[in-house]
Specification:
By secondary structure, this protein is mainly alpha-helical. It has helices spanning 2-19, 22-50, 85-94, 107-110, 125-136, 143-151, 171-204, 207-211, 217-251, 269-296, 300-314, 316-319, 321-326, 331-338, 343-353, 358-388, 396-403, and strands at residues 54-58, 80-81, 99-103, 114-117, 157-158, 165-166. The protein folds into 2 domains: 2-42 and 167-409, no CATH class; 53-121 and 124-154, 3-Layer(aba) Sandwich (D-Maltodextrin-Binding Protein, domain 2), CATH 3.40.190. The strands form 2 sheets. A 4-stranded mixed β-sheet has the order 2-1-3-4, covered by helices on one side. It is elongated and about 90 Å long.
Length: 411
């Protein structure tokens, strides 16, 4: 009980010390505000360009008197018809329209469309292509035939070795993988800095030597880890809330090119649960490694050099992302999924591309959790060994003895 009380006091002190710092507040609230400003500018520009009026000249007599609008672009302005190219180009020069599309008489033979665009032209090629497609099939009587012509084929890939199938890249899962990957790597960099500073600075100025005379090394180190993990989770919660609010605003904004109706059924709860289950032990592993490195290093600069080497392990999936997308069930993908440092990001990428066998998910999570707990338990030993050898060079033999609990006699 005394050790638990000491651990709680250290965790609370570490959390309150860092959460009020200017650097933490600046990064935590500054980044969302910066991204909000950037996306706001992009949305304002996109809204003014995406919803701009365009025109067309139908020399191929393709469109009926009242053309139909594509369902995905129902909120766009109806394209304006011009009797000839001269009047259309005059409207383009006057700024009445931002782009002019001409369907020549031989459109039925080659499918060529001539586009005239001004200096601030509409990003409307996809829209006009759908506009043509919808009106081309409007004369087809059979509803199923119209749907197939408009939607095209839906590819379903059978995954070898499983009884499951998946069609193409899953957009929602890919978005989750990208957001989770970006936030994880950003949090990895920032939290690593916090952890190294918290340990290296106090070790360098000898503060820790006085603290461990009052409490055990285990309570001190685990308390610091708990406090800084909660601090990083606080930061992550604020960023997550900002992304959620900003995402809802952007997706429901009139400037967003594709109308979306947000429903609870669209939320990928299974992916979010899987992400949480892998994120927590991954972050525990990161925190344990950073504290251990801070204990081994003689000063903060040396600690940053060590941490840079270990941080690269977590970035390995980014170096092989093309290979992972090409072969999501290959040996490289399976190996990176089972390796604790790369399991989180690799699994999210693979889930976005295809189906991951359940046994690989469970085995990966077990290896990750076991490794994280093992590293967290030996971190106090490594740190105490590092305290005893302050100013000395790094010895792998003595480090091995410290891991076995014999470092105090050989420091």
């Amino acid at each position: 009980m005394p050790e638990i009380k000491a651990l709680t006091l250290v965790a609370r002190y570490e959390y309150m010390l860092r959460v009020k710092s200017k650097s933490f507040l600046g990064v935590t609230f500054g980044l969302p505000l910066l991204y909000l400003l950037i996306f706001g500018i992009i949305m304002l520009y996109t809204g003014s360009v995406m919803y701009a009026q365009i025109g067309y000249v139908d020399q191929a007599h393709l469109f009926p008197a009242t053309p139909q609008m594509p369902p995905l672009f129902a909120d766009f302005p109806q394209p304006q018809a011009f009797p000839d190219v001269a009047s259309g180009r005059q409207a383009l020069e006057e700024g009445t329209i931002t782009a002019l599309y001409v369907l020549p008489p031989d459109y039925w033979q080659g499918g060529t469309v001539i586009a005239y665009k001004g200096n601030k032209h509409a990003i409307a090629s996809d829209f006009f292509a759908d506009f043509i497609r919808v009106n081309l099939v409007s004369s087809v009587d059979d509803a199923n035939a119209r749907a197939r012509l408009l939607d095209g084929p839906h590819y379903v890939s059978e995954v070898q070795g499983t009884d499951q199938a998946m069609g193409g890249i899953h957009t929602v899962r890919m978005v989750i993988a990208l957001i989770a990957g970006g936030m994880f790597y950003l949090l990895l960099t920032l939290s690593g800095t916090y952890l190294l500073q918290a340990v290296s600075n106090e070790k360098e100025n000898r503060t820790l030597e006085m603290i461990i005379t009052a409490i055990s090394t285990r309570a001190l180190i685990l308390g610091k880890m708990v406090g800084l993990i909660v601090l990083s989770l606080t930061q992550l919660a604020i960023w997550g809330a900002a992304i959620l609010v900003g995402g809802i605003y952007v997706l429901t904004s009139p400037a967003f090119p594709i109308p979306i109706t947000l429903e609870p059924s669209l939320i990928p709860w299974r992916e979010l649960g899987l992400l949480t289950a892998f994120f927590l032990p991954t972050f525990l592993l990161v925190a344990s490694l950073m504290v251990a490195l801070g204990g081994i290093a003689n000063d903060q600069r040396q600690g940053q050099q060590y941490s840079g080497i270990f941080t690269m392990l977590f970035f390995i999936p980014l170096y092989f992302i093309a290979q992972l997308i090409a072969e999501p069930n290959g040996l490289l993908a399976i190996g990176l999924t089972l390796f604790p440092c790369t399991s989180l990001s690799t699994l999210m990428i693979r889930r976005a591309i295809g189906v991951v066998p359940p046994w690989q998910i469970w085995l990966s999570w077990g290896l990750l959790t076991g490794t994280a707990l093992a590293v967290a338990l030996v971190t106090p030993r490594i740190f105490r060994w590092g305290m005893l050898r302050t100013g000395q060079g790094l010895s792998l033999k003595k480090l091995r003895l410290a891991l076995l609990g014999q470092g105090g006699r050989h420091a």
